[in-house]
Amino acid sequence: MKQIPVIALCGFLGSGKTTLLRRWRRDESMRDMAMIIHDLSEFGLDAELLSEEGATISEGQLNGRVAALHGRHASADLHASVGTALQEIAALNPAPPLVLCESTGAARPWPLIKALTQNDQFSLRHFIVTVDSLNLHRDFGDASSLLGDPLSSQDPALRQAAEVLAEQMAFANVIILTKVDVVPEDSVEKQVLNLQKLQPRAAIGLSANAGLLLSHLDNTPAPKISELQEQAQRLALTEQSSTADNIESLVLRDPRPFHPQRLHEACQSNLGTGLYRTKGYLWLASRPDQVLLWQQSGSQLVLELTGYWRAQAALNLDGSLLPEEVEQLKAQLADDHPIFGDRHNELTLIGLKRDREAFYSALCEALCTEEEIESWQSGETFADPWPKSIRHVK
Of 134-143, 181-190, 365-374, which gets the smallest average pLDDT? Predict the structure, then answer.
């Protein structure tokens, strides 16, 4: 039986893996592919973003052609959960042309490779590691610091990130430098030279705005599992856990709106180097209609308008809805919060304990107080320093 190729997409937190996947899956040749989303967060945001709109995401299960492996399925139960997902994928009709696995940025590469190659019906085609070119330029001297002893870094958070990144690249047959359009050209050239020294067996691709396509890698040889196993033994990595030590997640769930000014100040003052990634949905008191997708990695922060809350639409302030449409919306909101409706915040914070908990506390302080909520209900405006222009991304 012809084996189904598996492409593992790894890379440290916030390096652009989901952006690449969202672009790749739009290609017609990828229409029937299956995906395994290995996500350290508790509520599987990446699986939701990559699934069909409106699809219900169930933890540890194949939803359509997307296996959502988050929570315990991403760590303690990874091997067994991937095994179950591969069995379900093998039974799909039509059979997928390939399986794309997006892995958490805190993944240890060898346990992931073992999990993805446990079923003889599948073979590893690529182990791709994405690297954020801007972070590499700003924090790691265009990768020059990765060539030495990562333990020499004075910042424990950057030291931890360097160790995880170097370990992932040790198993890569492809390294993709992302966001190269925001880094000086000579810096990108230095990065390529340093990465070639670090991993001479890997092909190195450059990507701006997810412009590198999967087809561009067709001529890159597949990795040999026997060589990867020898690498794991040589580096004493055969008995490690599925995710990096000390990197854990914390979830903030709260229906209250964020005060836009205080949230802005929290980001300016509390984004420590050990807060590697935050992602999720939120809403601002100044923008009660907008569902905002929040994504932070390092000092980079993106807010994406992904939709509108039903609670605001049900007010029908512009009179565009028919009475029966308003009633239908109100019926859908019947079991939601009596004041906020379906509006809510749900953010996953990933990183080291101190910086993760410090930012969590800052976020809690940025939520509106009871007095501010009363003011919001009475129509008071709130200072909003966040960008108001919208850039459309295809």
Answer: 134-143
User: How far apart are the C-alpha atoms of 368 and 260, rounded to whole Å?
Assistant: 9
The model's pTM: 0.87
Tens of pLDDT, residues 330-349:
999 999 999 999 999 999 99
Residue 83's contacts (CB-CB under 8 Å, 6 or more residues apart) are: 115, 118, 119
User: CA-CA distances (angstroms) from residue 87 to 32, 79, 123, 338?
Assistant: 16, 13, 14, 44
Q: Where are the alpha helices (DSSP H) in the chain?
A: 17-24, 45-50, 78-90, 109-116, 133-139, 156-169, 185-198, 225-234, 260-270, 310-313, 323-332, 353-366, 370-377
- Between CA 180 and CA 131 the distance in angstroms is 10
State which amino acid sits at residue 240: Q
Per the CB < 8 A criterion, the answer to whether 34 and 65 are in contact is yes
- From the CB of residue 318, how many other CB atoms can be counted at a distance below 10 Å? 7
DSSP 377-393: HTT------S-------
pLDDT average, residue stretch 273-287? 94
Q: Which run of H or E residues covers position 8?
A: strand 4-11
For residue 1, the model assigns a pLDDT of 66
- Give the residue from 281, 216, 279, 389 showing the smallest Cα distance to 16: 279
- CATH code for the structural domain at 4-234: 3.40.50.300
Task: Using the predicted structure, report yes or no on whether residue 263 has a pLDDT greater than 90.
Answer: yes
Assign a CATH topology to domain 248-377: Hypothetical Protein Yjia; Chain: A;domain 2 (3.30.1220)
Q: State both tokens at 243.
A: 């995710």
Domain ranges across the chain:
4-234, 248-377
Who has greater pLDDT, 44 or 150? 44
Cα–Cα distances in Å, from 241 out to 14, 110, 112, 313, 382?
A: 21, 9, 10, 46, 46
pLDDT tens digits for 194-228?
999 999 999 999 998 878 888 899 999 999 999 99
By CB neighbour count within 10 A (0-12 exposed, 13-18 middle, 19+ buried), where does 391 fall?
Answer: exposed
C-alpha count within 13 angstroms, C-beta hemisphere, residue 197: 12
> What is the C-alpha to C-alpha distance for residues 46 and 280, in angstroms, rounded to an integer?
9
Alpha-carbon span 70 to 65, nearest angstrom: 16
236-249 as b/e: b if 16+ CB within 10 A: ebeebebbbeebbb
CA distance 271 to 356: 9
